[in-house]
Amino acid sequence: MPSPSTHTVAGTTLTMPVQVRDARCIVAGFTADADAMARAIESSGASPLRPLRMRPGRGMVMLVFVDYVDGDLGPYNEFGVCLLVENPAQRPSPINALGSVLRGDAHALIHRLPVDGEFTRQAGRGIWGFPKFLADFDVDHDSSRKRGSVSHDGSLIAALETAPGLPVPAGSGDAELTAYSCLDGTLRSIPWRLGSLSGVRARIGGATLTLGGHPIAEELRDLKLARHAAMTMSVAHLAMTFDDATDL
């Protein structure tokens, strides 16, 4: 059996897969203009990918605030702008697209990924090609109405507040998912495995999104996000692992 691969980041050796033992998150999914999503994908250098179309002319963008409580990359906050894209092994259709979203196994291009930790910034960019950069966060995962905001160079990117959802039974997770990144012209696929989940609440709608004056906020406006979220979810505890990226 081959030995696990390792990566050295800022003098620290990481053994793959990277473990996230505990994290919590809030998620909001908004439908978006599929042609605008395709332009964003192309501008990022990930042109082989195509938006996952939920219905004619509309794709899906997931906005995610994650608080990594305990993991190999240390504690940090993260905000993800994730563009759902077609699974090349699946025939494109609105029914298949909806099934992927409901099952939680839709493929996603990690389009923007500000964080508030230097070590995870270096690891994310160097190991997986994630477009991580340093930003400032103000988050509340403890109140019944969860909220998060992220700013960069004193300019607000986005603020998200979610209303309480209905409890969802805890599960073992154990689903293998696929994310994509594109950095410095290299498109990569990253397998990541979702472990145990608990404290999950979900609902239709229930999100208030405020966009600031930062260029990423303008990008989000250009995507023509729906006025109301299609769904929101919060997770109090989740575990994940991330394996080595594959260049495409």
UniProtKB/TrEMBL annotation:
InterPro entries: Acetoacetate_decarboxylase, ADC_dom_sf. It comes from the Bacteria. Gene3D superfamilies: Acetoacetate decarboxylase-like. This is Acetoacetate decarboxylase.
